[in-house]
Amino acid sequence: MLILHCPWCGPRSQTEFAYGGEAHIARPLSPESLSDAEWADYLFMRKNPKGRHLEQWGHAMGCRRWFNVERDTATYAIQGSYKMGEEPPGGQR
Amino acid sequence: MSRYSIFSLARNALSYHENWSRAWRSPEPKREYDAIIVGGGGHGLATAYYLAKEHGITNVAVLEKGWIGGGNTGRNTTIVRSNYLWDEATHLYEKAMKLWEGLSQDLNYNVMFSQRGVLNLGHTLQDMRDIERRVNANRLNGIDGVVLDTKGVKEIVPIINDSPNARYPILGASFQPRAGVARHDAVAWGFARGADQRGVDIIQNCEVKGIRRENGCVVGVETNKGFIASKKVGVVAAGHSSVIASMAGIRLPLESHPLQALVSESIKPCIPTVIMSNAVHGYISQSDKGDLVIGAGIDSYVGYGQRGSYSIIEGTLAAIVELFPTLSRVRMNRQWGGIVDVCPDACPIISLTPVKGLYFNCGWGTGGFKATPGSGWVFAHTIAQDRPHELNAAFSLDRFSTGHLIDEHGAAAVAH
Ligand SMILES: Cc1cc2nc3c(=O)[nH]c(=O)nc-3n(C[C@H](O)[C@H](O)[C@H](O)COP(=O)(O)OP(=O)(O)OC[C@H]3O[C@@H](n4cnc5c(N)ncnc54)[C@H](O)[C@@H]3O)c2cc1C
Ligand SMILES: [Zn+2]
CATH number for the domain including A56? Predict the structure, then answer.
């Protein structure tokens, strides 16, 4: 069981949260100029790393706000949470 | 290598079963192969077997980072069925079903394929409409299936809770009589033995760490046992597919999640078929040893930890007890997790890649065990001919840019 740290509510059990997938995937600014391959990349392709992962979580059963978490997908160690628009605790995206 | 038969059994009984020959060799890797398969799960071993058997390509190595069958092949709940909704999927799984039906004989290895049927329960009117649609689609494709009402379900599984007052009452089910279960380890071992007999080298404790390419073509793999050359490399690494793809600069539409299962203590026979419910999210069968084999859902987050959350177990067992109140005091003996490679449309990717000579077979997610022989059969064809077989052409990586997804979530999402 993971203990996630909501930036607004503090440490809470993972069962209170909804997972939102890989973070920092920006919606294309000019969708009409994208090729099919670029759309596929945006919509479907994922890093899915074994190791450091920047991901989105929503506090579904709490304040309902979304934030990002830096977590290791192999050890499940959590580096920390950061608000949308902030930089990850471990630096570099 | 000896053939297994009643005579070899009797002969070996005379020497107290101490002189059985090894089922496969344990060779050191050669410098070069005609084809390398990365991943010694059922799918990888089946691929090697059919490469040798169907295509005469025998200078093949299967490289496995741990022990064969130690991945999802040896961790799944062994449900085999072919009642998918869409034509593309159903034909692929039905190919596998046909191979299952002759597999023990073909391999001369008892994979304990038991066609005890599968019930997919419906708990709402919409569930029942979807079930009728799926069964009709199956029958149009020549695949067996019937729609049962509550009474029909109760007749097959007398201990099921058919109360109309249940939180999720059972309104009926689809039943595929030819579906069932098989012994997962035996599937890996049988394919390994069959491949080895035809000259395939099965190399365990050999982890692929890099994919060497020249001018856009694959030339071999870097491993902890050194570089091994080959112009054809087929990757069948389930939960680790994205990790290996990234070694070749390829992005895949996969996310790896932990998926759990558990088995109970042995009890008398009480579950004669396989029962699955998407709505309450649980599925169950009973092994020949008598233990209940129970499958759970995935953890929502990406994880490579081969263990899942307790909350998932809790939810699954609540569902099982809801369906079978009489099982409420059965004790669970073991619990484990595997890493499943979930694809956005709940269908596999069996495909060429932008790198010439590099092939991927992945994205089977929570439900690829049933496809093991069929997956190996079409992937062997894809590698040998450098183009997909018509059964797997629709499962190419380019479907994510053409938009031709095969959305099997209705038939596959929770179910396995
Ligand atoms: C709990 C659970 C229950 C399931 N229940 C069902 C079910 O009831 N019915 C069903 O049809 N399916 C089910 N599945 C899914 C099914 O198990 C898989 O889809 C299927 O077994 C995948 O087979 P595979 O051979 O591709 O993968 P695996 O058996 O996982 O084989 C992949 C192999 O690749 C190896 N590997 C990875 N990286 C490397 C590397 N770098 N170098 C060398 N080797 C590497 C791994 O060690 C592994 O042995 C379930 C899965 C789980 C986890
Ligand atoms: Zn909160």
Answer: 3.30.2270.10
Cβ separation A74–B401 shorter than 8 A: no
Q: Is the ipTM of this complex over 0.85?
A: yes
CA distance A4 to A13: 6
Mutate to test the interface with A, among B401, B406, B407 (most CBs of A within 10 A): B401
Q: Within a domain: residue A78?
A: yes
Q: What is the pLDDT of residues A13-72, one digit of tens each?
A: 999 999 999 999 999 999 999 999 999 999 999 999 999 999 999 999 999 999 999 999
Choose among B254, B256, B401: nearest Cβ to A36: B401
pTM above 0.95, yes or no: yes
Question: Is A76 inside any structural domain?
Answer: yes
Structural domain harbouring A82: 19-24+37-93
Q: Is residue A41 part of a domain?
A: yes
The total number of structural domains in chain A stands at 1
Q: Supply the DSSP string of B309-332, one letter for each residue.
A: -HHHHHHHHHHHHHH-GGGTTPPE
Q: For residue B145, is pLDDT > 60?
A: yes
How many separate helices (H) and strands (E) can be counted in chain B? 12, 19
Distances (CA, A) of B102 to B97, B99, B181, B217: 9, 6, 14, 37
* pLDDT score, position B416: 54
Is residue A72 assigned to a domain? Answer: yes
